[in-house]
Specification:
alpha/beta, Rossmann fold, 6 strands, 29% helix, 24% strand
Length: 178
Protein backbone atom coordinates (compact mmCIF):
# COMPACT_ATOMS: atom_id res chain seq x y z
CA UNK A 1 0.00 0.00 0.00
CA UNK A 2 1.14 3.48 -0.75
CA UNK A 3 0.03 6.19 1.67
CA UNK A 4 -2.70 3.92 3.01
CA UNK A 5 -4.26 3.39 -0.42
CA UNK A 6 -4.61 -0.11 -1.85
CA UNK A 7 -2.54 -0.81 -4.95
CA UNK A 8 -3.74 -4.35 -5.72
CA UNK A 9 -6.87 -6.40 -5.22
CA UNK A 10 -5.14 -8.45 -2.46
CA UNK A 11 -4.73 -5.24 -0.43
CA UNK A 12 -8.53 -5.09 -0.08
CA UNK A 13 -8.95 -8.53 1.43
CA UNK A 14 -9.84 -8.78 5.07
CA UNK A 15 -7.03 -10.36 7.08
CA UNK A 16 -7.34 -11.46 10.67
CA UNK A 17 -4.79 -9.93 12.99
CA UNK A 18 -4.61 -13.08 15.00
CA UNK A 19 -5.20 -16.58 13.75
CA UNK A 20 -5.55 -18.05 17.24
CA UNK A 21 -9.10 -18.43 18.54
CA UNK A 22 -10.22 -16.76 21.74
CA UNK A 23 -10.24 -18.63 25.01
CA UNK A 24 -13.22 -18.87 27.32
CA UNK A 25 -12.77 -19.83 30.95
CA UNK A 26 -15.96 -21.10 32.54
CA UNK A 27 -15.70 -21.04 36.32
CA UNK A 28 -18.29 -22.71 38.55
CA UNK A 29 -17.89 -21.78 42.23
CA UNK A 30 -19.57 -23.72 45.01
CA UNK A 31 -20.35 -21.08 47.65
CA UNK A 32 -22.63 -23.19 49.82
CA UNK A 33 -22.62 -23.00 53.61
CA UNK A 34 -20.29 -26.01 53.88
CA UNK A 35 -17.48 -24.06 52.18
CA UNK A 36 -17.27 -21.74 55.20
CA UNK A 37 -15.79 -24.53 57.29
CA UNK A 38 -12.05 -24.50 57.89
CA UNK A 39 -11.60 -21.37 55.72
CA UNK A 40 -12.14 -23.31 52.50
CA UNK A 41 -13.90 -20.43 50.71
CA UNK A 42 -11.23 -17.96 51.82
CA UNK A 43 -8.54 -20.11 50.19
CA UNK A 44 -10.70 -20.49 47.09
CA UNK A 45 -10.96 -16.69 46.88
CA UNK A 46 -7.18 -16.47 46.74
CA UNK A 47 -7.13 -18.98 43.90
CA UNK A 48 -9.88 -17.07 42.08
CA UNK A 49 -8.06 -13.75 42.46
CA UNK A 50 -5.01 -15.28 40.77
CA UNK A 51 -7.18 -16.83 38.07
CA UNK A 52 -8.92 -13.52 37.32
CA UNK A 53 -5.54 -11.80 37.05
CA UNK A 54 -4.24 -14.48 34.68
CA UNK A 55 -7.38 -14.26 32.53
CA UNK A 56 -7.05 -10.47 32.35
CA UNK A 57 -3.40 -10.70 31.29
CA UNK A 58 -4.14 -13.36 28.66
CA UNK A 59 -7.19 -11.48 27.37
CA UNK A 60 -9.38 -14.51 27.95
CA UNK A 61 -13.13 -14.32 28.18
CA UNK A 62 -14.81 -15.34 31.43
CA UNK A 63 -18.06 -16.97 32.38
CA UNK A 64 -18.68 -17.17 36.10
CA UNK A 65 -21.46 -19.14 37.76
CA UNK A 66 -21.97 -19.39 41.52
CA UNK A 67 -23.80 -22.22 43.23
CA UNK A 68 -25.29 -21.18 46.55
CA UNK A 69 -28.70 -20.74 48.10
CA UNK A 70 -31.59 -22.19 46.15
CA UNK A 71 -30.34 -21.85 42.58
CA UNK A 72 -27.18 -21.05 40.60
CA UNK A 73 -26.56 -17.48 39.54
CA UNK A 74 -24.56 -16.11 36.61
CA UNK A 75 -22.13 -13.35 37.52
CA UNK A 76 -20.49 -12.93 34.11
CA UNK A 77 -21.27 -14.60 30.78
CA UNK A 78 -18.54 -14.59 28.16
CA UNK A 79 -17.13 -11.12 28.74
CA UNK A 80 -13.49 -10.20 28.65
CA UNK A 81 -11.92 -10.63 32.05
CA UNK A 82 -11.84 -7.30 33.84
CA UNK A 83 -10.43 -5.91 37.05
CA UNK A 84 -14.03 -5.48 38.28
CA UNK A 85 -14.21 -9.19 39.04
CA UNK A 86 -12.08 -8.55 42.11
CA UNK A 87 -14.87 -6.36 43.54
CA UNK A 88 -17.33 -9.22 43.08
CA UNK A 89 -14.85 -11.60 44.70
CA UNK A 90 -14.50 -9.39 47.77
CA UNK A 91 -18.25 -9.59 48.34
CA UNK A 92 -18.51 -13.34 47.77
CA UNK A 93 -19.93 -15.09 50.80
CA UNK A 94 -21.09 -18.60 51.48
CA UNK A 95 -24.52 -19.72 52.56
CA UNK A 96 -27.51 -21.85 51.85
CA UNK A 97 -27.71 -25.13 50.00
CA UNK A 98 -25.56 -26.63 47.30
CA UNK A 99 -27.23 -26.26 43.89
CA UNK A 100 -24.01 -27.48 42.23
CA UNK A 101 -25.73 -30.08 40.04
CA UNK A 102 -28.16 -27.42 38.80
CA UNK A 103 -25.19 -25.10 38.14
CA UNK A 104 -23.38 -27.77 36.12
CA UNK A 105 -26.53 -28.47 34.12
CA UNK A 106 -26.95 -24.73 33.48
CA UNK A 107 -23.28 -24.52 32.44
CA UNK A 108 -23.74 -27.39 29.98
CA UNK A 109 -26.71 -25.69 28.26
CA UNK A 110 -24.82 -22.41 28.13
CA UNK A 111 -21.70 -24.04 26.62
CA UNK A 112 -23.75 -25.76 23.92
CA UNK A 113 -25.33 -22.45 22.90
CA UNK A 114 -21.97 -20.68 23.11
CA UNK A 115 -20.32 -23.21 20.78
CA UNK A 116 -22.91 -22.45 18.12
CA UNK A 117 -22.04 -18.76 18.17
CA UNK A 118 -18.28 -19.18 18.62
CA UNK A 119 -17.28 -22.54 17.12
CA UNK A 120 -13.52 -21.80 17.10
CA UNK A 121 -13.42 -20.65 20.73
CA UNK A 122 -11.28 -22.75 23.08
CA UNK A 123 -13.32 -23.46 26.18
CA UNK A 124 -11.93 -24.50 29.56
CA UNK A 125 -13.78 -25.40 32.74
CA UNK A 126 -12.85 -24.84 36.37
CA UNK A 127 -15.08 -26.17 39.14
CA UNK A 128 -14.30 -25.14 42.71
CA UNK A 129 -16.16 -27.20 45.30
CA UNK A 130 -15.84 -29.11 48.54
CA UNK A 131 -17.82 -31.94 46.96
CA UNK A 132 -20.35 -32.10 49.78
CA UNK A 133 -23.28 -33.29 47.72
CA UNK A 134 -25.80 -35.91 48.72
CA UNK A 135 -25.68 -37.59 45.34
CA UNK A 136 -23.40 -37.24 42.31
CA UNK A 137 -25.61 -39.29 39.98
CA UNK A 138 -26.90 -37.70 36.79
CA UNK A 139 -23.94 -35.43 36.11
CA UNK A 140 -24.08 -33.58 32.80
CA UNK A 141 -21.25 -34.13 30.32
CA UNK A 142 -19.77 -30.72 29.59
CA UNK A 143 -17.52 -31.87 26.74
CA UNK A 144 -14.85 -29.37 27.71
CA UNK A 145 -11.35 -29.85 29.15
CA UNK A 146 -11.35 -28.89 32.77
CA UNK A 147 -10.15 -29.09 36.31
CA UNK A 148 -12.03 -29.62 39.56
CA UNK A 149 -10.35 -28.03 42.57
CA UNK A 150 -11.33 -29.68 45.83
CA UNK A 151 -11.52 -27.16 48.70
CA UNK A 152 -12.72 -29.65 51.32
CA UNK A 153 -10.85 -29.15 54.58
CA UNK A 154 -11.04 -30.46 58.09
CA UNK A 155 -10.28 -33.61 59.99
CA UNK A 156 -13.07 -35.64 58.34
CA UNK A 157 -13.07 -35.51 54.56
CA UNK A 158 -15.74 -37.25 52.54
CA UNK A 159 -13.70 -37.21 49.32
CA UNK A 160 -16.72 -36.82 47.06
CA UNK A 161 -15.04 -34.17 44.94
CA UNK A 162 -12.78 -36.84 43.41
CA UNK A 163 -15.91 -38.82 42.41
CA UNK A 164 -17.44 -35.64 41.01
CA UNK A 165 -14.33 -34.97 38.89
CA UNK A 166 -14.40 -38.53 37.55
CA UNK A 167 -18.11 -38.18 36.71
CA UNK A 168 -17.50 -34.89 34.89
CA UNK A 169 -14.44 -36.36 33.13
CA UNK A 170 -12.17 -33.54 34.28
CA UNK A 171 -8.86 -33.49 36.13
CA UNK A 172 -8.83 -33.42 39.91
CA UNK A 173 -6.62 -31.44 42.30
CA UNK A 174 -6.88 -30.56 45.96
CA UNK A 175 -6.31 -26.88 46.68
CA UNK A 176 -3.38 -27.75 48.96
CA UNK A 177 -1.57 -29.26 45.94
CA UNK A 178 -1.80 -26.10 43.83
Amino acid sequence: MLGGRPQRREDLLYRLRSRSPHELWLVVVDASASTRRHQALRDAKGLLAQLFDDAYRQRARMALLTASGQSPKWQVQGLKAAKGLVTWLDGLGAGGGTPLLAALSEARHWLVARRKGYPAEQQRLLVITDGRLKDVAGLPLLDCPGLLVDIERGPIRLGRARELAAGLQVDYRHIDDL
